[in-house]
Amino acid sequence: MHETDLHLEPNEASDLCRVFGPDVLARNGWDRAFVTVLDEATAEDALALLVHAAGAPLDEGWSARRVLTDAGVHAGKTEDAEACASYNGYVYLLGSQFGKKAGPLAAKRSWIARVKEESILAGEPAELEIVRLRFGLHRAINDALADVELVPVGPLGQQAYVDATIERGLAKAKSWSGAIHPTDHPVNIEAAEFLADGNLVLGLRYPVTADGHPLLVELTNAGELFDAPGAVPICGDVWILGDVGGVDAPAGLRGLDTHGDDRFDAVIGDLDASGKSATVLADHPEGALAASEHVRFELPPGGGVVGSKVIHHFGDVRRVEGVAVDHEGHAHYVIDEEGHVALRTLVFD
Fold this sequence. Notes:
Number of strands: 22
Number of helices: 5
Order of helices and strands: EEHEEEEEEEEHHEEEHEEEHEEEEEE
Strand order of the largest sheet: 6-10-9-8-7
Helix content: 10-25%
């Protein structure tokens, strides 16, 4: 396992996805390139590009750069980027759809964005398309999970995330008032990847099932949200990683990766960071116990419970935020460590 300090500010990175084909990589003198998102920035400031010099050993030759984009009228109106995925010439970014650790849910975190992959290398800010969802994705995910037995929200989460958000929407006559229902679960998205058919799989850190297993939810119209103004998110299939996590140590999704064949790699881990007064952990202290692991699985059409294979266990390392497997089968992970963001590479013989 090799580690490289990426020297990125702010020091809060999340998720990881591959970008660029062989020709673009070769023209720039690279053999690998990834993007990650910095979750303490607005969407237009959240993107970072990580590249590896062609021919250099995997423990050397890495560099990172911020990618500035232009969000137009949406500048400054988003926060908490948590997931990224590339598909059909675009890099997609998603907000967590969640709230601060003490609540309430935040409309500024309810968004999806995309930028043309080729524009990332331009010398000027790239155009970033943003769709502010105003809890539309929260609504669609909760509706999709209606038949799944979920871990109870808990009294603190009910008040801080659900009731307080409903009250705020009514008191301030927000356009999204009514999107949050009293029986809803707060939703925290921390991973995303595309199925072969172009539908987007969302990896949830929270909620999990009543048995503590992670959930993946299919967003069927990611492209339409940009191409058809006024379109609302539509969610379809739901998958459960039935052999990951458990009642005593529930586990959520932290990162997703695929090569387009509906076989996925994922990082799983705890439900929220301990020691930061997280409301989720106040209701569910066991949610801090799950260790970080890299697992692999396939997602069959129609959803359901699926099994997985453990690829790597991270031991005492907890803040593993994303995974991407390169063309040689080596796994790369973005990790938040104290004071810096690191890229770790696991070399497989």
